[in-house]
Design brief:
heterodimer, A: 266 residues, alpha/beta, TIM Barrel, 9-stranded parallel beta sheet, 44% helix, B: 405 residues, Rossmann fold, 2 domains, 6-stranded mixed beta sheet
Amino acid sequence: MSARLSAAFAKGRPALVTFVTGGDPTPEATPAILDALVEGGADVIELGMPFTDPMADGPAIQQANLRSLGAGTKTADIFRIAADFRARHPDVPLVLMGYANPMTIRGPEWFAEECREAGVDGVICVDIPPEEDPELGPALRTAGISLIRLATPTTDEARLPAVLEGSSGFLYYVSVAGITGMQQAAVASIEEAMARLKAKATIPVVVGFGVRTPEQAAAFAKVADGVVVGSALVDLVGEHGSNAAGPVRDLTKALADAVYSARESA
Amino acid sequence: MTATSPANSFRNQPDERGHFGQFGGRYVAETLMPLILDLEKEYNAAKQDPAFHAEFDDLLEHYVGRPSPLYFAPRLTEELGGAQVWFKRDELNHTGAHKINNCIGQILLAIRMGKTRIIAETGAGQHGVATATVCARFGLPCVVYMGATDVARQAPNVFRMKLLGAEVVPVTAGAATLKDAMNEALRDWVANVHDTFYIIGTAAGPHPYPELVRDFQSVIGKEARAQMLARTGRLPDLLVAAIGGGSNAIGLFHPFLDDTSVKMLGVEAAGYGLDKDHAASLAGGRPGILHGNKTYLLQDEDGQIIEGHSISAGLDYPGIGPEHAWLRDVGRVDYTSVTDTEALEGFQLLCRTEGIIPALEPSHAIAAVAKVTPTMPKDCIVLVNLCGRGDKDIFSVAEHLGVKL
């Protein structure tokens, strides 16, 4: 696992993980939005790779994918955005998140090598479960890129070891059975899930899906190693377009304040 | 059955992980994975359960109307002037297409698994109608996702589904056709895994769907093989079927795969032409991952999916079932494609020569037959799957022919 990812979860407080779709609204606008996330206090940046068929995403991120592809975003643009980000922010971990087909179409080795060259720390692939790990996992591990897997409310005790096997960086707990940005889980269910996951996981566990406000983020940060916010930020990009950096920075700052101090107010 | 040993058989796919060679598999979100594994377990149990088979067979006989006839088409044969053309008449099934065979099997599985809500995607509406039908028959609520474009061009089927008590949800994303309906059905499923069964309409999607849909549809080929032997004392020389996802084709082909004398031809939709917009993923695509399986897909160099186009809403999909991808790569089945215009000619040809109005999907198979049979000797037998009837298509055919109804 990259030193950057390890360091992000070794700050003695919960981490804020933020997601935006690369190339939304345009490839040119994305760097300023990523900088705003860092300035606002995000500890880990997830950069979405746009896909024509984002089956696990709700309307907000679906629209972001369409805006990005509509602006002509190519895979090469995503890696250029990533490499430029790495040059500007040598210490902030960057994770690519997306779907299997754009990641594997030129072969997993090609993708893993591009990630390595661009300074990407980890990859989240929505539709490659442990059962299909050979499609991507070995190439990423060889290149030293963390494969970050998802665990969900349907991931039972029997399955959890398979999910953890070969994954690194952090475990992404999907708080509700559903698509991104739609519903929010009850805090009690997150507490129960965290206890279950952390009993087995040797890597940090973050919670995402449906976290929109600083209050919600703080509630989850009390029990998790980190909290992921995506759709709420993507909505700001949808609303403000190329001028989204300011609003994105403000929301990230509010989220960061809430997450950093979540356990102090407990 | 032929004497081919299992090791050399084309009929022992997929492997235990759901792969047909490099194709197939289970490329789904983690939320769905436990359910997919449950379904696999339940399907394997059902396969061993005589009571499951008995109920399936009983419903096919008394509710669907099987076996469907095997019909020799004398005037079409005469007009084409070559090999004999025979049809497997699956358009005579209850609901008017082969789709119901699979829906019967899947709803029995859903009930075995204790699921209380059914969802489905549909393109032409035939699978939606078949799903709504079995839901009414078994008293389960049904939600059908259908691209808004298809809702507009298949209005009669939309009304049928509503009459049968289904909720039809128009999907406006993308080109608003079958691919987008499938995305939306998957989003529903992932949010409702606890009580919902997804009845996938074609032999595609994550394992075990390609296998179980094929098995349920194989009743077509099993019947046809026995009927042909009983009627002619021999096997056909060539099987022909249209392919969108490919469930009617695999249903016909699979029981014949180890009959080495039987050639097979799958017919994809070439739309406006292979150099323009089309839905022929074998002819114009390459391997990739979408909707839970690896298969040939229409896509660009970055792996972004390209919308399919066909006059037939049922073939308008940028992928194909993974077993067809494998059968093409191992060379057991040949695949060709015909354009919208050729399919319309096939449609009219069958109406005129045999008094049968076919759906636009098998009209593609008929167009291919019109090309290939004249080159074959008269003692050869070509068996075509007539997988759906054309009542649903008369409005769009009229429009394409410039006729105002």
